[in-house]
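User: I'm putting together notes for a lab meeting next week and I want to include a structural view of one of the chains we've been expressing. I don't have a solved structure, so I'd like a prediction I can at least talk through. The sequence is below, exactly as it appears in our construct file.
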Amino acid sequence: MTDSEHIPGIQPLRDAVGLIGPESPWPLQVERRLGVPLFFAHRGSSMNPTLHESDLLEIVPYGDRVAKMGDVIAVAPPGGDYLVVHRVVRVTSEGVCTRGDNNAREDSWCLGSERVVGRVVAAWRGRRRRRILGGRAGRLWGCGGRGRRVLGRVVLGLLHPIYHGLARSGIVRRLAPASLKPRVVLFGTGERARLRLLLGRRIVGEYVPRWRKWHFWRPFRLLVDEADLPRALPQALDSEGGL
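Assistant: Thanks for the context. Below is the predicted structure for the 243-residue chain, given as structure tokens.
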């Protein structure tokens, strides 16, 4: 990630899928000066493949301008003290209606300009700044992403038995070099503590307590033996300490 000390206004991340948000101040009290970007860390999969887990989002307030269909925007939904980053799919008399690029349905709200914090213009991954398309180009990108997801589901359905057969066999895991061995890391403390798998600096899996099982990002299940992974938060690990 880009060095946080060199970027002003970074806010801590809320631990919720598809959401970004500051602990303080409350989203609608964020200072929104035209031309002055805000920076938030992103978590969740609702905007895949446009945005990914741990991307650092560069958000520019609209000022007197209005959001356009296709823009990726940060909004404060009603009744919440968090921000949601989704794409504008409709503009109505009630406001802007949004949906995540990875979601099948629109969000349950249409929001006025007072709840729009700004447009996501770029996402930082490491030291690389990637422009996020808006407007007509953004609409085309969002539609293309949905088409890719449908095709991907078909392909994954065909490859599913092969993929899980390879994972059970362990052949890929045994042949993989040590540099491709994910490590277990404890993120957060207290009620927010989470066990995750890291490969380098990339999150490739997470233990889900309510399911009592690990969830892996494809194709990284091939690199681990789930039976060897912990299923409880170890007392001996500090925050962001590794096994």
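A couple of points you could mention at the meeting. Residues 10 and 181 are 31 Å apart (CA to CA). The two ends are 22 Å apart (CA to CA).

User: Perfect, that's what I needed.
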